[in-house]
Design brief:
binds adenosine-5'-diphosphate; alpha/beta; globular; single chain
Length: 412
């Protein structure tokens, strides 16, 4: 069976075609600048690579171009669109309605629409991607896979905020968490890798990328995670500030600065402050680059702001690990994943420094240069520390396959 995985943004559509026999990637690509001048598609199929510059006005045209390329005699990997058995869509916010992936029908689309207020930037784009694929592949089943679903097992004490309860009851203001597909994949994969059952395991997953989140997974179920109502909460990230006193919003709104640090001369709206906290903060706001590699290089040269940004990130991860170990009554496995977690060995080393009190000892030799699936703790470490590369596309494809073949998702 061949499953197409689609991740639609407001002006982009990423895709990957996976042959589920052996879970092999056949082709992948991205349509960029949809509806904007300079739209183009980048496509890769094994050795074959192409950039197609074309006017692409909407998501339906993007989906059409994707299919045309997938069946193209030169660039394609299938001879007919009918070879695509199903499409799995990444959807950001499933609110409290979706605890697992679902086959897309009218009710599911309405529920995704109902979550627009919770994911105003992503959910409308995700739905556009679904509707575009429905139009160009009317006979092919579509599945929605939610970034929030894995975290729906959190108990109320973990997901409630201390604002008046009616905000949760009437407006669903609570912690949801994101990167759920990655946390689910890694929590399953690490147990396969270690040849153990998730039952009885207390796992902490550190998904560290442009966006970063940690989760606490006990007996295979998420019991807490660091992102909240939106992906802004939690760790310092590439451009997001992470958790801070909510009163900072009011203070910055009333006392904004321009790029040179001088008073702006007007107040900012709440939306403007949130944009600043989402897009201009984090590593970018402290060290001047959102990319951890740049920050590391600057820190190496002695740049004080880069050193500080790195310390803040590392300290934040350490504090979450400590708090999740306390929440679960201990920890058995710590996993590092995503761009930084998989590749940045020196950051992993700093995070795991002085963690013997938890029973965790990193093997610095095994850790150095490790970018693949591996155990990086010492043999006598009570906590197994692992690097587990994430693969959200495979997880989406597996759910899609399960739903269209058996009607339910295995191992949710
Ligand atoms: P996203 O959250 O957008 O999927 P990634 O998971 O790719 O992003 O993470 C991006 C971060 O990972 C960047 O800060 C980057 O510095 C870091 N990163 C990605 N690849 C590498 C690498 N090969 N070596 C070191 N750092 C990397």
């Amino acid at each position: 069976m061949k499953i197409l995985v689609v991740n639609a943004g407001s002006s982009s559509l990423k895709y990957q075609l996976i042959d589920m026999e052996g879970e092999k990637e056949l082709a992948k690509g991205v349509v960029e600048r949809i509806g904007i001048e300079g739209s183009r598609m980048k496509h890769t199929a094994g050795e074959k690579k192409a950039v197609i510059n074309e006017v692409i006005s909407n998501h339906e045209e993007a989906a059409q171009l994707m299919l045309k390329t997938l069946v193209d005699p030169e660039l394609g990997v299938i001879s007919s669109v009918d070879e695509i058995d199903a499409v799995g869509h990444r959807v950001l916010h499933g609110g409290n309605k979706f605890t697992a992936s679902v086959i897309v029908d009218d009710a599911a689309k309405q529920a995704i629409r109902d979550c627009f207020p919770l994911g105003p930037l992503h959910n409308p784009a995700n739905l556009m991607g679904i509707e575009a694929c429905e139009k160009v592949m009317p006979k092919t089943p579509q599945v929605a896979v939610f970034d929030t679903a894995f975290h729906q097992t959190m108990p109320p004490k973990a997901y409630m905020y201390g604002v008046p309860k009616m905000y949760e009851e009437k407006l669903h203001v609570r912690r949801y968490g994101f990167h759920g597909t990655s946390h689910r994949f890694v929590s399953r994969r690490v147990c396969e890798f270690l040849n153990i059952s998730p039952v009885g395991q207390r796992i902490i997953i550190c998904h560290l990328g442009n966006g970063s989140s940690l989760s606490a997974v006990k007996d295979g179920k998420c019991v807490d995670t660091s992102m909240g109502l939106t992906p802004l909460e939690g760790l310092l990230m590439g451009t997001r500030c992470g958790s801070c006193d909510p009163a900072v919003v009011q203070f910055v709104a009333n006392n904004p600065l321009d790029k040179d640090g001088n008073p702006l001369g007007r107040k900012l709206s709440v939306d403007e402050v949130l944009t600043l906290m989402n897009k201009e903060s984090g590593l970018q706001g402290i060290a001047g680059s959102s990319d951890c590699r740049d920050v590391d290089a600057l820190a190496e040269k002695g740049d004080a702001n880069a050193i500080l940004a790195r310390e803040m990130l590392i300290y934040g991860i350490k504090k979450y690990i400590g708090s999740y170990a306390a929440a679960m009554g201990g920890v058995d496995i710590i996993c590092f994943t995503a761009g930084i977690g998989e590749n940045n060995d020196s950051l992993r080393e700093e995070v795991m420094k002085d963690m013997e009190f938890l029973g965790a000892r990193l093997d610095t030799d095994k850790n150095r240069g490790c970018r693949e699936e591996a155990i990086v703790s010492t043999e006598d470490s009570k906590v197994t520390v692992c690097v587990i590369p994430t693969n959200e596309e495979i997880m989406i494809a597996r759910d899609t396959l399960d739903l269209v073949t058996t009607g339910k998702v295995r191992d949710n």
